[in-house]
Write a structure and sequence with these properties.
By secondary structure, this protein is of the alpha/beta class. A seven-stranded mixed β-sheet has the order 1-2-10-9-6-3-4. It has a three-stranded antiparallel β-sheet with strand order 5-8-7. It has a single domain, classed as Rossmann fold (3-Layer(aba) Sandwich), CATH 3.40.50.1360. Helices cover about 35% and strands about 15% of the residues. The radius of gyration is 18 Å and the shape is globular.
């Protein structure tokens, strides 16, 4: 289903139209507030899971950390959506992870486990976390590549293809753990790398070619503190480009789902019908 058709269908079911997103630029959907971003993101997750499972019997998604995904996971684990996903056919991975154990509050896996995975009937063997707390971090990254190779289809270039990757945008324009000016930002031979974060600590992250091989990449961005960097990412041309600008799935769709505060500095460009449907990610 095209996203424009999806919003229309939501209206037909009696959903409050004031809570539905407005496409102010091609691929940029604005919700009135953060709560509705989480709710719409959860509904899109359900919709895309349906499509993927109906088409090929599986749904492979890379999760992310942060407060906005946390709110989305709570929605997915709630009464409305929990039973609408065939969790036995879902495999979850991660876009990046800090070098902390799973029980650490900073762990992306730990947050998703608490808010979502313990609350839905997903088989434990379908949960593939990054073991970034290991001392042999480089070896752990290589082993994660082997996990991706085992469970994901490969595209024509031999890259693993996720059905959906969830992403955010940092204040410096980073996404996943791909940071501006990072030595390994343009890594092309690896699927998972171990860059140094802004605090000087290493992380594990999917590389840019893997992000761009996805069928869909969905950025979740909320809050007035993100308004400036979101404008740069979507409307400016810094040199070199910011990592978030470099995510552009060649054969899939790239969507930004944001709240009104984050979108405050964006210009509005009329979206022609063909523009509003061409990046459906189907």
């Amino acid at each position: 289903m095209k996203l424009t058709s999806y919003w229309s269908a939501m209206g037909d079911t009696g959903t409050n139209l004031s809570l539905l997103p407005e496409e102010i630029q091609p691929g940029v959907m604005v919700c009135p507030e953060a709560e509705s971003v989480a709710r719409v993101a959860a509904r899109l997750f359900v919709e895309w899971a349906w499509q993927s499972i109906a088409g090929k019997g599986k749904f492979r998604v890379a999760l992310s950390g942060g407060s906005t995904p946390r709110a989305m996971y709570k929605q997915l684990a709630g009464e409305t959506y929990r039973t609408q996903v065939d969790w036995g056919k879902v495999h979850v991975f991660w876009g990046d992870e800090r070098c902390v154990p799973p029980e650490d509050p900073e762990s992306n896996y730990g947050m998703a486990r608490r808010e979502l995975l313990l609350r839905v009937p997903i088989p434990p063997l379908h949960v593939h976390r990054m073991e970034a707390e290991r001392g042999d971090l480089g070896r752990a990254a290589q082993e994660y590549e082997e996990v991706l190779r085992e469970h994901l289809d490969l595209d024509a270039r031999g890259l693993p293809r996720f059905d959906l990757i969830l992403l955010g945008v940092g204040a410096d324009g980073h996404t996943a753990s791909l940071f501006p000016g990072a030595e390994k930002l343009h890594e092309t031979s690896r699927w998972a790398s171990t860059p140094v974060g802004p605090t000087g600590k290493r992380r594990m992250t999917l590389t840019l070619p893997v992000l761009n091989a996805a069928r869909r990449a969905l950025f979740l961005v909320v809050g007035s503190e993100k308004a400036g960097i979101l404008r740069v990412v979507l409307e400016e041309n810094p040199e070199p480009p910011l990592p978030a600008q470099l995510v552009a799935p060649a054969e899939g769709g790239r969507w930004f789902l944001v709240d009104g505060a984050a979108a405050a500095l964006l210009s509005r460009r009329p979206v022609a019908m063909h523009e509003g449907t061409q990046q459906s990610g189907e």
